[in-house]
Model the fold of this input.
Amino acid sequence: SAVISQKPSRDICQRGTSLTIQCQVDSQVTMMFWYRQQPGQSLTLIATANQGSEATYESGFVIDKFPISRPNLTFSTLTVSNMSPEDSSIYLCSVSRLAGREETQYFGPGTRLLVL
Amino acid sequence: GENVEQHPSTLSVQEGDSAVIKCTYSDSASNYFPWYKQELGKGPQLIIDIRSNVGEKKDQRIAVTLNKTAKHFSLHITETQPEDSAVYFCAASSPSASKIIFGSGTRLSIRP
Done:
């Protein structure tokens, strides 16, 4: 498995501000991902965080709104910019790690964001 | 692209009975099918997964079956206990995709 921590665990923010969420993994991983989970909904992939290059964003998500950094193989940040109440969600960091010869994906505990 | 459908959206079973959650997928190239359990206030936890070279996998009270011809897979929980109450998500991915696609989730409640 993988030990993944996220900071902050939760936050309440004012609209128009930005929040940076940190994700730390206990050892090097091949891939890191950021997901959004709106209340009562499933998980939606925002982007794949690439080490040493720009993140790969999914349809409907843009770098200006969700800038991502991945300075090394164990750490990534997601910023939610110019927040509005619609950004209120759980943001989840996920990593892909080799289990035997196969890639397996694990999730962090999430960051619960409320935008007023 | 891949689409994963999950049923039912809610499921209530008596403690000790079995629970079954079913998923279908659209991409015939998909070959990896994990299941996640999400308890209230926590991130999704991988509970079992299956790859397309096997038809069934079991881990204690949890089993997953895969029918590649019909493109569906199921999660079976036997002898359910109160701690099994959670939201369960199925997912699928293919070798050509570096990401997994999730189903819509099933909220499982165990009645005492």
User: Anything to note?
Assistant: The longest strand of chain B covers residues 19-25. The mean pLDDT of chain B is 93. The radius of gyration of chain B is 13 Å.
